[in-house]
């Protein structure tokens, strides 16, 4: 459990409001008890549901939540465009409303005029994160405050981008360990946009649920591969430098913030699933069973890019994904990947419309995402099984103190 994530004490107002319905259903509890115990007996000592629901992440703080917070099970990504005529004052009012609502929801409280979607539920590790797209600054009258790092991402060979699902003036990342809590936040924030901003696109994702494995493990993606082993760790000496804008960085309102690259990457799962296990492992450069690099060891063993096998060939092939994406292959470039998987049904040809909602955090996209993606474009075996279909870049300011709202230094500075 991190300093950002701690069990909530007491009863939330949202849960209290739902207790009236619980009282009316009390007569059902006794009759359903036997079934509940039988269901529990089929499980291997799961974590109590009360702990999942009771876990709260603070809204206020030095950083916005949802960056270093442990991955949650359900996620929604939304981009909005400012409505015609919406100016700096209107944008500030919107961010004030959004920040207030996010604070209440993350504490497990029901905002005014609540829809009741998440009655009875605790905070469930809910996080809400806000960001600004490149086009926001001109529309809001703060063009002189647009960061240089928010320059448009370059075109990549693998791009097949849908402009309707890319970019945007404003961005919200919502994540929680309960699907209803996550949707409740999505609905509440979308309603708060009112006439100030219009939804441009929305994407829904998921990860493994807490307690689904016998011990904490790195999550797997829809290809079945363990994904995220080489992520920078907060304990690393250079973590802050890689992920967050320096405290004296430019512009001043972004000091302590980060930049989020968002990509919708469809996986060609039918083609991937037809590969043998051995071939899949060579494409990635890791064992599928436990995530260990093909150079040997366990999942967390450092990758040895110069190791050869008994035949004198590289243990990790020259175009294997872990080799091409490794910081050692990209002059130290690294980013904090915090993705969600997605499945949006099936395409006309019967193939699954599924893959990864890739979210990468870094202090400077030109030193993080861009050089790595350029290298992957040149020769990554895994790229043959991926299609980049949407892309966006957002400036995510630092957190705010009680009584403030996210982005206040930009809009009122």
UniProtKB/TrEMBL annotation:
InterPro entries: Dimeric_a/b-barrel, Dyp_perox_C, Dyp_perox_N, Dyp_peroxidase, EfeB/EfeN, TAT_signal. Residues 218-400 form the Dyp-type peroxidase C-terminal domain. GO terms for molecular function: lyase activity. Its EC number is 1.11.1.-. Involved in the recovery of exogenous heme iron. Extracts iron from heme while preserving the protoporphyrin ring intact. NCBIfam families: Dyp_perox_fam (TIGR01413), tat_substr_1 (TIGR01412). This is Deferrochelatase. It comes from Streptomyces rugosispiralis.
């Amino acid at each position: 459990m991190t300093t950002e994530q701690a069990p909530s004490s007491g009863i939330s107002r949202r849960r209290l409001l739902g207790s009236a319905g619980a009282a009316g259903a009390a007569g059902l509890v006794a009759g359903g008890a036997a079934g509940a115990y039988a269901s529990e007996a089929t499980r291997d000592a799961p974590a109590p549901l009360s702990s999942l629901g009771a876990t709260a992440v603070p809204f206020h703080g030095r950083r916005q939540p949802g960056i270093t917070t442990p991955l949650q099970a359900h996620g929604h990504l939304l981009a909005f465009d400012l409505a015609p005529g919406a100016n700096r004052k209107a944008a500030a009012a919107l961010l004030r409303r959004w920040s207030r609502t996010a604070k209440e929801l993350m504490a497990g409280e029901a905002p005014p005029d609540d829809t009741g979607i998440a009655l009875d539920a605790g905070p469930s590790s809910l996080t809400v994160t806000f960001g600004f797209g490149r086009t926001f600054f001109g529309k809001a009258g703060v063009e002189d405050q647009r960061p240089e790092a928010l320059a448009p991402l370059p075109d990549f060979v693998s791009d097949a981008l849908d402009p309707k699902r890319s970019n945007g003036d404003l961005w919200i990342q919502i994540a929680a360990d309960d699907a209803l809590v996550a949707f409740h936040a999505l609905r509440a924030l979308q309603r708060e946009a009112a006439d100030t901003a219009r939804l441009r696109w929305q994407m829904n994702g998921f990860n493994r649920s807490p307690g689904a494995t016998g011990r904490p493990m790195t999550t797997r993606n829809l290809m079945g591969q363990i994904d995220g082993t080489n992520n920078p760790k907060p304990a690393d000496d250079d973590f802050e430098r890689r992920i967050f804008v320096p405290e004296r960085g430019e512009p001043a309102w972004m000091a302590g913030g980060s930049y989020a690259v968002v990509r919708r990457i469809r996986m060609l799962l039918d083609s991937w699933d037809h590969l043998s296990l051995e071939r899949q492992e060579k494409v990635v450069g890791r064992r599928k069973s436990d995530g260990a690099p093909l150079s040997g060891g366990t999942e967390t063993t450092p990758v040895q890019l110069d190791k050869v096998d008994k035949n004198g060939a590289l243990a990790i092939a020259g175009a294997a994904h872990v080799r091409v994406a490794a910081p050692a292959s990209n002059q130290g470039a690294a980013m904090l990947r915090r993705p969600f998987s997605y499945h949006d049904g099936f395409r006309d040809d019967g193939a699954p419309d599924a893959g990864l909602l890739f979210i990468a955090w870094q202090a400077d996209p030109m030193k993080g995402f861009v050089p790595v993606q350029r290298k992957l474009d040149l020769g990554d075996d895994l790229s043959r099984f991926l299609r980049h279909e949407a892309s966006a870049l957002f400036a995510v300011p630092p957190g705010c103190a009680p009584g403030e709202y996210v982005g206040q230094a930009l809009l009122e500075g």
